[in-house]
Amino acid sequence: MSPPTAGGHLDLELQDLLDGRAEPRVRADAETHLRGCAACRGRLAALEAARSAVRTAGGAAELPPELAARLDAALDREDASAIRSQRTRRLAVAATALAASLLAAVLLLRGRAPDVVEVVTTDYRTQAVTLPAGALRTSDVGELERFLHAAGVPFPVRVLDLGMMRWELVGGGVETLEGQPSIALAYRRDGRTVICRMYLGSTAALPAGARVEEHRGFRFHVYERDGVTAVFWQEGQTVCVLIGDGPSGGVVELAVEKAMAPA
Prior knowledge:
Blueprint: H1 13-19, H2 24-35, H3 38-57, H4 65-76, H5 80-83, H6 87-110, H7 116-127, E1 136-137, H8 141-150, E2 168-177, E3 180-189, E4 192-200, E5 211-215, E6 218-225, E7 228-235, E8 238-245, H9 248-258
Antiparallel strand pairs: 1-2, 2-3, 3-4, 4-8, 5-6, 6-7, 7-8
Helix pairs in contact: 3-6
């Protein structure tokens, strides 16, 4: 990854983070920069929201005909042999950038970027009592994986059996998180419930204030909000978050055991 631009901010690196293409060292450097740079966090959140909006609209984004024609003409002026194979990707990036600019303006008017930590910790208080609407209540890992896979979520479906740690699978379902599909899984032990959620995204877009711990090659971002702990980590292009109440150390320990490198 190239260093921040002359203005001290990340640029093209943000898209690599969002797409999960950044190498571990690159990701770590970028996350360090983002923890201290509210402007870059806002831009990354806007890009993530733009991609979510494009998915929600269904299919690839389309540029206005006039803008698409101008972009196409510009590409034609370049070396055709080097550019033709990249045309589709450039048009898609341009469309995403256009949508991101509009969303960034909205976010600035609101005064802050979306806080996914606040969303998941607030949702936890309901999810710990009842599963999402349309969820499947089962302790069978295979059955739940097939159910979630049939829902067509845009990332690999993985349900772990935590029985060895005495956490019983209760069930799971699909619901929206920040405008895109998210899996929510519930586990219970001794009257306590933890929720695991997964969604496409980047931990680099998380808000400031996390306690970062490194275990088994993963970086865990730990937040404590009003007695609820949320632990985020990256698995490929998927962000996983484990949410629970009680001592934060227990939630972190379970997240460390649950983390698994993508196949």
